[in-house]
Design a protein that fits this description.
Length: about 130
Amino acid sequence: MVQISELRPDACVTPRAYNQLVRAIRELREAARLLPEQITGAFPIEIRRHPAGVHISLAYSERTALVELTGTLASGSNTTAKVLWYDGAWQEAETDEITIHDAIGTMEGDPGDNALVRFHRQSGQWIVWQLQC
C-alpha cells in the first residue's frame, strides 16, 4: 500500500506527490472491487455489504428447546423447566433450569409435562409454543 503524507498548506503539489495519490487511489479501487470476492464466510458468520462498507457478524439463529416442566404452569404465568437434549434418546441437558412463560395465556401444565419453547429476543424470555396435551 502506498503511504501518502499530508502536505503543509503552503506546499506545492509536486508530480511525485500527485503520482503517489493516483497510485493510492488505484490500489483502493482495486481493493474495493475485489473485496466481495475475497471475503467469504460459512455459518454462523454473516457478511453483508452496505453503504458504510462490509459488515461481518455472527448470524442470528433461532433458539428453540424441548423442555420438561419442573413446576406448575398456570395460564398466563411462568414456571421453571429443564432443557432436554437428544443423544440417541431425550435426556436432561447439563444446563441450569430455565424460566418459561405463557405469553398468550392459554397454556397449563404440571411437573413432568413436556413443552416446546422458543427464545424471544425482544423480551429476553423463553416462550411456550406447544405444551404436552
